[in-house]
Amino acid sequence: MSQIILVTGPARSGKSEWAETLATETQLHVVYVATGNQDVNDTEWQKRIQNHQLRRPPNWLTLEVPRNLSHVIADAHPHSCILVDSLGTWVANYLDMNEETWSNIAQELLETVGIIAAKIIFVAEETGWGVIPAYPLGRIFRDRLGNLVRQLSVISDTAYLVTGGYVLNLGRLGFPLPIVQEDTN
């Protein structure tokens, strides 16, 4: 039986560690889906990747999937746990796409998640708690990620907010708002 879990929060809040804990607790075969692109010229990024790798058990399968996330999820074994870290990086990898193309990609992901039999844990950044970005690409990123996280939270069995090192179960503390489609033109 499938289960969808969303773990969201700001940078350095502990959301990846919490998602890794949840994946370990499943006692299933874990497939860690890294959405970031390797960049050997960016030593700081390489260090972040290395720190994530060192935290994970060696028996987890790691897949680097910067774009075709829906295909990997669709192929998931029913008795596995897929941990996607992170949606923010995945969304950023599509910023070159126009709104219609992006909308189709996001819809494909949501539809795929709704029909799989595996357990899936998504890690997503919260980016909309600050000022409105002063540049168009920043606003596109913030809006796309915010909308995707909101839509995903509605179909998730459990949604957690991790902030300041604390884990909050949003389903126990609140209730989801209905999704209202906004005109982005």
From TrEMBL:
<protein>
    <recommendedName>
        <fullName>Adenosylcobinamide kinase</fullName>
        <ecNumber>2.7.1.156</ecNumber>
        <ecNumber>2.7.7.62</ecNumber>
    </recommendedName>
</protein>
<comment type="pathway">
    <text>Cofactor biosynthesis; adenosylcobalamin biosynthesis; adenosylcobalamin from cob(II)yrinate a,c-diamide: step 5/7.</text>
</comment>
<feature type="binding site">
    <location>
        <position position="64"/>
    </location>
    <ligand>
        <name>GTP</name>
    </ligand>
</feature>
<dbReference type="InterPro" id="IPR027417">
    <property type="entry name" value="P-loop_NTPase"/>
</dbReference>
<dbReference type="GO" id="GO:0008820">
    <property type="term" value="F:cobinamide phosphate guanylyltransferase activity"/>
</dbReference>
<keyword id="KW-0067">ATP-binding</keyword>
<dbReference type="GO" id="GO:0043752">
    <property type="term" value="F:adenosylcobinamide kinase activity"/>
</dbReference>
<feature type="binding site">
    <location>
        <begin position="9"/>
        <end position="16"/>
    </location>
    <ligand>
        <name>GTP</name>
    </ligand>
</feature>
<dbReference type="InterPro" id="IPR003203">
    <property type="entry name" value="CobU/CobP"/>
</dbReference>
<dbReference type="GO" id="GO:0005524">
    <property type="term" value="F:ATP binding"/>
</dbReference>
<dbReference type="Pfam" id="PF02283">
    <property type="entry name" value="CobU"/>
</dbReference>
<dbReference type="GO" id="GO:0005525">
    <property type="term" value="F:GTP binding"/>
</dbReference>
<feature type="active site" description="GMP-histidine intermediate">
    <location>
        <position position="52"/>
    </location>
</feature>
<comment type="function">
    <text>Catalyzes ATP-dependent phosphorylation of adenosylcobinamide and addition of GMP to adenosylcobinamide phosphate.</text>
</comment>
<keyword id="KW-0547">Nucleotide-binding</keyword>
<comment type="similarity">
    <text>Belongs to the CobU/CobP family.</text>
</comment>
<comment type="pathway">
    <text>Cofactor biosynthesis; adenosylcobalamin biosynthesis; adenosylcobalamin from cob(II)yrinate a,c-diamide: step 6/7.</text>
</comment>
<keyword id="KW-0548">Nucleotidyltransferase</keyword>
<keyword id="KW-0418">Kinase</keyword>
<feature type="binding site">
    <location>
        <begin position="34"/>
        <end position="36"/>
    </location>
    <ligand>
        <name>GTP</name>
    </ligand>
</feature>
<dbReference type="GO" id="GO:0009236">
    <property type="term" value="P:cobalamin biosynthetic process"/>
</dbReference>
<feature type="binding site">
    <location>
        <position position="85"/>
    </location>
    <ligand>
        <name>GTP</name>
    </ligand>
</feature>
<keyword id="KW-0169">Cobalamin biosynthesis</keyword>
<keyword id="KW-0342">GTP-binding</keyword>
<keyword id="KW-0808">Transferase</keyword>
